[in-house]
């Protein structure tokens, strides 16, 4: 088992069950991508594993203990999450935003220590946001905003980072900018990253481990080569696709060409 895993997890809203009997382990020190059609339960799984949602049954284990039995500050020191489309208060600067990442470590009136300030500065620098430190977040481009939020997550100094579709609504250049940053964080700092990914070729290129979800159930998981197959894509997405090898990386590329015929 990895440092983060679920046992017989069931998640639902009101009387509707979204996820049932989920047993999922996140490989430590790797990038894992959750893929699946819209409404398949990917974001619901991510939020529940991060304790943003409560499971109706089963358990999420973080460092060998139930995540529900740990305090908010305990969890925030181990796991940081970047939700989809986060928004900052108008006029809040990048430095002020990133400073929120030090909340789990603050006591009393929450005064920032020298160590806090050093970590905030490091988080801003490592995400390439140094020149924008004093600029309001709402005045940044999409890619810059996303990097500012990642800097906030990094300031928590956690070994695990969750991201819910971090490249949504970004143009191609900004998508690559964010994905390259995540790759760097994993390679150089061994961060364990779990992200919901919409683009299958991004998942294949940047993730070591892929989990394909359909109606809250794991259909396939493993390396990109094991999951990115015509059979899995047909079942999970209802498409017919050719799989070719990326000439640069050797990773499988998905080339969809028509809808699968229902059988």
**Beta-strand percentage?**
25-35%
Helix-strand topology string? EEEEHEEHEHHHEHEHEEHHEE
Range of helix content? 25-40%
End-to-end distance: 37 Å
The global form is globular
Strand order of the largest sheet: 7-8-9-4-10-11
Q: In terms of structural class, how would the helical and strand content be classed? A: alpha/beta
Rg, nearest Å = 19 Å
Low-pLDDT windows of residues: none
How would a textbook summarize the main sheet?
6 strands, mixed
Say how many strands there are: 13
Count of runs of 4 or more consecutive helical residues? 9
Overall pLDDT score? 94
GO cellular component, one term: plasma membrane
Domain ABC transporter: 4-240
Subcellular location: Cell membrane
GO molecular function: ATP binding; ATP hydrolysis activity
What does it look like?
About 30% of the residues lie in helices and about 30% in strands. The strands form three sheets. Strands 7-8-9-4-10-11 form a six-stranded mixed β-sheet, with helices on both faces. The chain has nine helices and 13 strands. Strand 10 and strand 11 (about 215-220) form a beta hairpin. The protein has helices at about 40-50, 70-75, 95-100, 115-125, 140-155, 170-190, 200-205, 225, 230-235; strands at about 5-15, 15-20, 25, 30-35, 55-60, 65, 80, 160-165, 190-195, 210-215, 215-220, 240-245, 250-260. It has a domain at about 80-155. It is of the alpha/beta class and about 260 residues long. Helix 4 (about 115-125) runs antiparallel to helix 5 (about 140-155) and helix 5 runs parallel beside helix 6 (about 170-190). About 40% of the residues are buried. The chain is globular, with a radius of gyration of 19 Å.
């Amino acid at each position: 088992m990895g440092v983060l895993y679920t046992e017989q997890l069931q998640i639902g809203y009101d009387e509707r069950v979204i996820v049932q009997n989920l047993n999922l382990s996140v490989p430590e020190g790797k990038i894992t991508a959750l893929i699946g059609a819209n409404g398949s339960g990917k974001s619901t799984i991510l939020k529940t594993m991060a304790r943003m949602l409560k499971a109706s049954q089963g358990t999420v284990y973080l460092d060998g203990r139930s995540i529900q039995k740990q305090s908010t500050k305990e969890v925030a020191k181990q796991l940081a999450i970047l939700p989809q489309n986060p928004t900052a208060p108008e006029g809040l600067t990048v430095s002020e935003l990133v400073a929120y990442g030090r909340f789990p470590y603050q006591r009393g009136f929450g005064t920032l220590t020298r160590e806090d300030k050093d970590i905030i500065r490091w988080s801003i620098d490592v995400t390439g946001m140094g020149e924008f430190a004093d600029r309001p977040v709402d005045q940044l481009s999409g890619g810059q905003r996303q990097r500012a939020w990642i800097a906030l997550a990094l300031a928590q100094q956690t070994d695990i980072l969750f991201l819910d579709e971090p490249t949504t609504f970004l143009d191609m250049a900004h998508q690559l900018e964010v994905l390259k940053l995540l790759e760097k964080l994993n390679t150089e700092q061994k961060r364990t990253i779990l992200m919901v990914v919409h683009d299958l070729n991004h998942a294949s290129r940047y993730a070591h481990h892929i989990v394909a979800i359909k109606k809250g159930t794991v259909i396939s998981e493993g390396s990109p080569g094991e999951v990115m197959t015509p059979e899995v894509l047909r079942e999970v997405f209802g498409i017919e696709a050719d799989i070719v090898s990326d000439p640069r990386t050797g990773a499988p590329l998905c080339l969809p060409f028509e809808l699968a015929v229902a059988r």
